[in-house]
Amino acid sequence: MEQQIKNSVLSTAREMIAGGLVEGTAGNLSARLDAERVILTPASLSYKTMDCSDLVITDLKGKVLEGTRQPTTEMALHLTCLANHADIAAVVHCHPVYASMFAVNREPIPSLIEEFDIHVGGDVPVADYQETGSQALATEVSRHLDERGAVLMANHGLLCVGKDLEDALSVALLVERTAKIVWGARLIGKPLALPESTHAKFSPLYKRSRRAARDDT
Ligand SMILES: [Zn+2]
Predict the structure, then answer these.
(1) How far is the CA of 37 from the centre of ligand 1 (A)?
(2) How many C-beta atoms surround the C-beta of residue 55 within 10 A?
């Protein structure tokens, strides 16, 4: 199981690059190994050459338990989200272009498509600006994740969570795709909101899947 999760960290990191969610060594990932331990990507290392021995295992307070490299500089961000939300097991942080346009405008990405409510829980909120790598940023981002699978980080990027890394990555790809659709729709016209009755029907499905994940743990 542990090896499977390590392989998943490496494959998700490469898909993050292939999907255009980050460039170079930017972005970072984490996954829960068990109730006490988290696996994180290391700081400043190319995803193309990264292998399992480069990954870092810490406890939820950040004490390194395994690995020779420094954990990601956003370690506090990952550990705080995982510690505060028992119903998530993986975190993907990335800098996709379209979602980041909303992040620098400090504007939520509106849920204008049904699948967005189902997989993200509704509009993607914006966490207030805090400096990269800080505990203040970690605390601010984490508080937006009670009923959402994604949060924009003001003037920075995007953070997505899920029951595993594949799930968190699919949320990130959906958020970026939707941000692009909203951006384009505003160029060619005026996007219209979904009916409130649709949000009322589909948003609870996301909350239900988070509750089910929590009850499994
Ligand atoms: Zn970042």
Answers:
(1) 22
(2) 24
